[in-house]
Amino acid sequence: MSMDTVFELSPKKVEYIKFINGKNGPVKTNNIAAGFGVDPSTITKTIVELADEGLLVYVPYHGVSLSVKGKITAEFLIKRHRILALALTHFGFSHEQACLEVSRFESFVSKEAIDQMCRAMGHPNKGICGDITHDDGCLRI
Amino acid sequence: MSMDTVFELSPKKVEYIKFINGKNGPVKTNNIAAGFGVDPSTITKTIVELADEGLLVYVPYHGVSLSVKGKITAEFLIKRHRILALALTHFGFSHEQACLEVSRFESFVSKEAIDQMCRAMGHPNKGICGDITHDDGCLRI
DNA sequence: TTGAAATTTGGACGATATCCAAAATTCTCC
DNA sequence: GGAGAATTTTGGATATCGTCCAAATTTCAA
């Protein structure tokens, strides 16, 4: 996964990363599975992939946490969601409508586009489903 | 395919429908295949699916044309692209940047969202890659 | 009419996401 | 500390999407 494609996660992976980010400490497989109404084995398979991509620290049978890279990714995913939803409110969308609509397509929007929109909106701090933070979303180790 | 999901076409199908829309008369398999740099058999398989969905009139070995439903769909797809690209220019995107970015995610944006954005922009007639037409995108037969 | 070109068919693959059943592991309680 | 319960993983299967290749079919053109 190159620098440019770091955030090209599938929609489901995006949701899982955000879910894990919203929990404290290691998250159990059944917890995620229950959160999305899917079989635990589905979660196991996906978290193994996310761990292989370096986004999760996975201890089999004990749960997952975000790696540093995963945390930075999660922060970008949240910012992306909030910037896009905020942008839609500029077109008269209600908060719910904006959130719902953005969830349909956010996974396919590039970091460059988000940066541009963020800049154009003057780096807003208030999103419609939470605050917006402004690190640059790039991982340097 | 219900009324609500008429426009839930995959990204590739969206591209193929737009491509066929841009040609006069029946379009040959090799023409589409060359346009996208894929094997002709890939096109055959996809156009059979689009014909099954009622969007194309397909005469094996002789080419495809848009059905009435396909034409209306194509017009919506084009409008969606142009409305979204125009919206991005409001955030400082260049025309090329906007077009390119929209092509990443347009397939996942609902008709309702486009209607809302179109309304908010005052039903603009000038898009950035062509004019915008304002039928309602619903097929009634 | 016959060989070349175009097209379709059938089979395969990889990626994504899902399920189920069986095996493995961990936990809990006595 | 052990036995049974709960959790998790593994392995296999399915489905969709988009793709390729090789072989068969059909059409076209000289």
Question: What does this protein look like?
Answer:
2 copies of one chain form a homodimer. Chain A is mainly α. The first copy, chain A, has 2 domains: 9-66, Winged helix-like DNA-binding domain superfamily/Winged helix DNA-binding domain (Arc Repressor Mutant, subunit A); 78-120. In chain A, 53% of the residues lie in helices and 6% in strands. The first copy, chain A, is built from 6 helices and 2 strands, in the order H-H-H-E-E-H-H-H. Chain A has helices at residues 11-21, 29-36, 40-52, 68-89, 95-105, 111-120, and strands at 56-59, 63-66. In chain A, strand 1 and strand 2 form a beta hairpin. In chain A, helix 1 packs across helix 4, helix 4 (68-89) crosses helix 5 (95-105) and helix 4 crosses helix 6 (111-120). The radius of gyration of chain A is 15 Å and the shape is elongated. The A-B interface holds A 87-88, 90-93, 97, 101, 104-106, 108-110, 112-113, 116-117, 119-121 and B 87-88, 90-93, 97, 101, 104-106, 108-110, 112-113, 116-117, 119-121.
Unreliable residue stretches of chain A: 1-6, 136-141
- What is the SS-derived class of chain A? mainly alpha
What integer value in Å does the Rg of chain A equal?
A: 15 Å
- Sheet bearing the most strands of chain A, described? 2 strands, antiparallel
CATH fold type of the largest domain in chain A: Arc Repressor Mutant, subunit A
- End-to-end CA span of chain A: 15 Å
In CATH, the homologous superfamily of the largest domain in chain A goes by the name Winged helix-like DNA-binding domain superfamily/Winged helix DNA-binding domain
The helix/strand series of chain A, from N terminus to C terminus, equals HHHEEHHH
Count the E strands of chain A: 2
CATH architecture label name of the largest domain in chain A? Orthogonal Bundle
* SS field, number of helical segments of chain A: 6
* Oligomer kind: homodimer
Strand order of the largest sheet of chain A: 1-2
What is the global morphology of chain A? elongated
Quickly count the domains of chain A.
Answer: 2
In helices, the fraction of residues of chain A equals 40-55%
Strand content of chain A: 5-15%
Major interchain interface with per-chain residue totals: A-B, 21 and 21 residues
CATH class of the largest domain in chain A reads Mainly Alpha
